Amino acid sequence: MNEINFSIYGDILTPLTNPDFLLKKFEDQQNARVRIEPMRWEEAWPKLLDFALHGGGPHISIIGAIWTSSLQSMNTLRPFSAQEITGLGGKDAFFSSTWENALLSPANQSWAIPFNAYTYLLLYRRDLLEKAGVDESTAFVSSEAMLTTLGKLKQAGISSPIVLPSGEPFLARINIVSSWIWGAGGDYISKDGKKVLLNEDQALSGLSDYFKLYRYLDPSDHGLTQTECQRRFAAGRAAVLIAGSNSRDILRAAVQQPVLQNLGVVALPGVPWIAGANIVIWREAQFSYHHEQL
After folding, report:
1. What is the pLDDT of residues 120-149, one digit of tens each?
2. How far apart, in whole angstroms, are the C-alpha atoms of residue 69 and residue 119?
3. CB 57 within 8 A of CB 26
4. Distance, CA of 36 to CA of 71 (rounded, Å)
5. Tell me: the pLDDT tens digits for 267-278?
6. CA 26 vs CA 3, 21, 158, 254, 281: distances in Å
7. Euclidean distance between CA atoms 39 and 63, whole angstroms
8. Residue 153: alpha-carbon gap to chain centroid
9. pTM (2 d.p.)
């Protein structure tokens, strides 16, 4: 019996926590076994890099979408053919933004298949915006409008206009900040990858606007982790929260009815950062015809 090694990472792939319902039929039809190797988010990249450098890794993996280009540049991934993509429903079956981390040069070749999409959202309390005299349709349309809204919430006597992680290192902060940098017309590097842009005026302006948000933290909200921020918002102790699109379970577990009844959700101001996970096949799978076909 052939065995396929399949690695998954992180805590956002809960449908694969118990993958039997997805894989049992496949295993029976193909007379094959699929062995799942779970990896924690913080250990995934070092492990994937080790697979790329030394081989001996899985045949197929779910990886962070932004890692695709690095692994492809090391010549460790097997490309997907146009026929295979068509068999999955074609590119139109996916969010267009998810293909940006899957279609890479040369020749716009597809080196991955999008598995899921992930972004950050801005959650807010409609009732508290109304109390502060803020029109929710324009409250967060730009970084400037958001700062004005937080100021009005503070003036209205709301002690915690916003909660933000400010305790232990928060690795995803750079993803959130991207919306402000891109919204100000800045970027991290030039499109040709040859020039750093993060120290130029537009990027610095976006960074400045983001970190101005911390002026509106109540002293009692200092030092919170992202999870603690989510729970504090869900408990009705803050007006605005930036949360990942996978935060539903945490919010549901703690949310108070007044929060749920008055919950508003919008995209972050600026240009939202969108990533997620991709499915890739490792080039080593081509060493065996049967493994590649499976």
Report:
1. 999 999 999 999 999 999 999 999 999 999
2. 19
3. no
4. 20
5. 999 998 988 889
6. 12, 10, 55, 38, 17
7. 10
8. 29
9. 0.80
